[in-house]
């Protein structure tokens, strides 16, 4: 899980840097990385995982996983995840200092998503239609025109994911979403 986090963070970081950062964005990013590293590094050194648990739970939820940990499991999982978060920050900071950090070297490609580990066919979790229905029902009195207008990009995402052998929304990764956005941009939609 932590390794998957590191890889996703570094791929996103690499993509952002490849598009160029002006001086202001570069300086802001450096400051943010330094502040986060100091704060999270202290938590790691103290073994205090309480502050990272909400991020871990959100990450698991976004990956379509729900887990109930015992206090001991929570400590171990939180600590391992926090180590991954700090490692990702260290790699980003190294890049920020101009060092070459290969994502494939420090965070080799494993499964495309956590779901690949649990279910390589991505058949668990809610379906595309179930997720869309939940989204539509989430806002009371959502205008029908909004739901109709959203169906097309949702179908496009579903088709794009299928072309990557992702069978339901639980298999979506940040990298896949970036690829989808780029594909839509290239098509002019």
SSE class: mainly alpha
Rg over CA atoms, rounded to whole Å, is: 19 Å
Largest sheet, in brief, is: none
Number of strands: 0
Order of helices and strands: HHHHHHHHH
- Averaged pLDDT, please? 83
Poorly predicted runs are none
Estimate the strand proportion: under 5%
> In one word, what is the shape?
globular
SS element count, helices: 9
Q: How many angstroms separate the termini?
A: 34 Å
Helix share bin = 55-70%
Q: How many domain units? A: 2
What does this structure look like?
About 70% of the residues lie in helices and about 0% in strands. By secondary structure, it is mainly alpha-helical. Helix 1 (about 1-20) packs parallel to helix 4 (about 70-95) and helix 2 packs antiparallel against helix 4. The model has no long low-confidence stretch (mean pLDDT about 85). It folds into two domains: about 1-110, no CATH class; about 110-189, no CATH class. The protein is globular, with a radius of gyration of 19 Å.
List keywords for this structure.
2 domains, mainly alpha, 189 residues, 0% strand, 69% helix, single chain
Describe the structure in brief.
With 189 residues, the protein is mainly alpha-helical. It has helices at 2-18, 23-46, 53-62, 71-96, 103-106, 114-118, 128-138, 144-163, 174-187. The protein folds into two domains: 1-110, no CATH class; 112-189, no CATH class.
């Amino acid at each position: 899980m932590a390794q998957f986090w590191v890889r996703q963070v570094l791929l996103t970081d690499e993509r952002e840097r490849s598009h160029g950062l002006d001086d202001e964005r570069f300086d802001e990013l450096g400051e943010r990385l330094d502040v986060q590293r100091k704060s999270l590094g202290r938590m790691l050194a103290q073994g205090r995982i309480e502050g990272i648990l909400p991020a871990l739970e959100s990450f698991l939820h976004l990956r379509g996983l729900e887990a109930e940990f015992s206090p001991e499991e929570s400590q171990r999982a939180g600590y391992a995840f926090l180590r991954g978060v700090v490692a990702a920050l260290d790699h980003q900071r190294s890049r920020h200092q101009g060092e070459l950090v290969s994502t494939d070297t420090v965070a080799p490609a494993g499964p495309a998503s956590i779901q690949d580990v649990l279910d390589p066919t991505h058949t668990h979790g809610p379906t595309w239609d179930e997720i869309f229905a939940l989204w539509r029902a989430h806002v009371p009195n959502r205008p029908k025109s909004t739901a109709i207008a959203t169906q097309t990009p949702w179908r496009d995402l579903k088709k794009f994911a299928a072309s990557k052998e992702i069978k339901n929304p639980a298999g979506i990764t940040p990298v896949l979403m970036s690829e989808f956005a780029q594909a839509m941009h290239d098509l002019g939609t």
